[in-house]
Prior knowledge:
Elements: H1 14-37, E1 44-46, E2 49-51, H2 61-76, E3 82-86, E4 90-93, E5 98-100, E6 104-108, E7 119-120, E8 125-129, H3 136-148, E9 153-158, E10 163-170, E11 173-181, H4 198-202
Parallel strand pairs: 4-7, 8-9
Antiparallel strand pairs: 1-2, 1-5, 3-6, 4-5, 6-8, 9-10, 10-11
Amino acid sequence: LEATPPQETGEIGGDVGKTRLCCVFVSVIVVVYPVMADRLSPQDLIYGTFRKPAAPLTIGHDKLVSRLHTALDAYITPKSLGRLWVGIEIVLDRREGLVLQPDITFIVDGRESIVSDRVWGPPDMVVEVTSPLTHSGQLEERVAWFSLYGVREYWLVQPQHKDVAILELAHGGVRRRTLFDDITPLRSPLLPDFDRCLGELLM
């Protein structure tokens, strides 16, 4: 694959030609990304540009993610509701170069075919644990992307505030937001009988 000098882009006729060239370039980035990702710390690919999420400052971030995964799996697997993944990349839009990497991903039974080396398309639910450096603007941006591409639920775990916001998503926005304190069982339309609370997982 040969690099194209910037001045040569003008030789492609019209704006349509330029748009096609851009799409091809972004597609190449997404194809190369899996190889590069093995050598880099976790990060997202936002419309062709790498962006590293805010680093978790709390020592227990990874432990909390692990405990959440274990608790969710203990509920989901016996009921054959679907499967969970930790830290897997989600390709929401291959052409536009939009790849996100939440902490936990859930896909309901019967939709596992969209998963190979990563998730190709919207999962049913994602879980993200915030850090003190996480900016509200970044969260709103991520929620909008997940909603726009068809993710049904977004769980925002905020250990510093000892609460969990469960967002029911639809049509690029939030249809319903439910805030759970650390002593209330975390339940949602996808997991209506889940009986674990955040406080148990933070101990």
